[in-house]
Specification:
Blueprint lengths: L1 E5 L6 H12 L3 E3 H10 L3 H10 L7 H12 L2 H6 L1 E4 L5 H7 L5 E6 L2 H9 L1 E4 L5 E3 L18 E2 L6 H15 L1 H8 L3 E5 L4 H13 L2
Parallel strand pairs: 1-3, 1-4, 2-3, 4-8
Antiparallel strand pairs: 5-6, 5-7
The protein binds BIS(adenosine)-5'-pentaphosphate.
């Protein structure tokens, strides 16, 4: 199954992709996670990506298309498909991905929910699991329930950078909703719903494919 998740920052794309990938045994490919890993390892790509990400801007299309093409060429994605989280984000990226997708899932989420989720988000340094200080707290403060890794807060989750990311989403990414609707593969879910309820809805949607 080949699925892309579309939605504003903080909509829950990464959280749900992580959970569904484990249950459905489909690789979760997050371009944000790939870039953060490069930054953590201080690679050339990481340095380049950081200069855009810290400001809440998009990394150039040609860089992102190369990264994704390379990742989708790996055996797990070739055999089992993928849940792509964070790509495509522009029309150029969507065209490069092609039209052999099964579902484009749009997380329709209100601005108030987005702001509160991003302000409290915590991420595991080791396995990228997502938590929230209030909504989804880890059992032990600062430690990942899944792998015991340390939790950290993303630099680009500062209020001012979040506002910029939201503007960029509206300007450059939201038009993909119409693009995939025209292709007849768009499904929409209410991203404001609580985690368990929304997980069940998406799981049933994808399982029945
Ligand atoms: P990326 O990492 O992809 O960030 P994003 O798209 O802005 O999305 P987020 O990760 O902020 O949100 P999410 O929807 O995954 O929400 P989450 O599940 O974490 O990209 C970061 C940067 O990398 C970009 O700004 C750009 O610079 C660059 N980049 C990446 N891809 C690119 C591309 N293709 N082209 C160009 N540049 C690219 O949830 C948020 C919080 O809410 C968490 O704390 C979670 O625990 C909580 N939560 C989630 N769901 C619920 C729920 N239902 N109820 C309660 N709490 C919930």
């Amino acid at each position: 199954m080949k699925v892309v998740f579309i939605g504003p920052p903080g909509a829950g794309k990464g959280t749900h992709a992580f959970m569904l990938s484990k249950k459905l045994k489909i690789p979760h490919i997050s371009t944000g996670d790939i870039l953060r890993e490069e930054i953590h390892n201080r690679t050339r790509l990481g340095l380049l990506a950081k200069s855009f990400m810290d400001k809440g801007e998009l990394v150039p299309d040609e860089v992102m298309v190369d990264i994704v093409k390379n990742r989708l060429g790996k055996k797990d994605a070739r055999l089992n498909g993928f849940i792509l989280d964070g790509f495509p984000r522009t029309k150029t990226q969507a065209l490069a991905l092609g039209n052999n997708l099964d579902i484009a899932l749009y997380f329709k989420t209100s601005a108030a929910v987005i702001i509160s989720r991003l302000a409290g988000r915590l991420i595991c340094r080791r396995c990228n699991a997502n938590y929230h200080i209030k909504n989804i707290p880890p059992k032990k403060s600062g430690i990942c329930d899944t792998c015991g890794g340390k939790l950290y807060q993303r630099k680009d989750d500062r209020e001012e950078t979040v506002r910029k990311r939201l503007n960029i989403y509206r300007r450059q990414t939201s038009s993909l909703i119409t693009y995939y609707k025209q292709q007849g593969i768009l499904k929409e879910v209410n991203g404001d719903l609580d985690l368990i309820r929304l997980h069940k809805i998406i799981f049933n949607m994808l399982k029945s494919r």
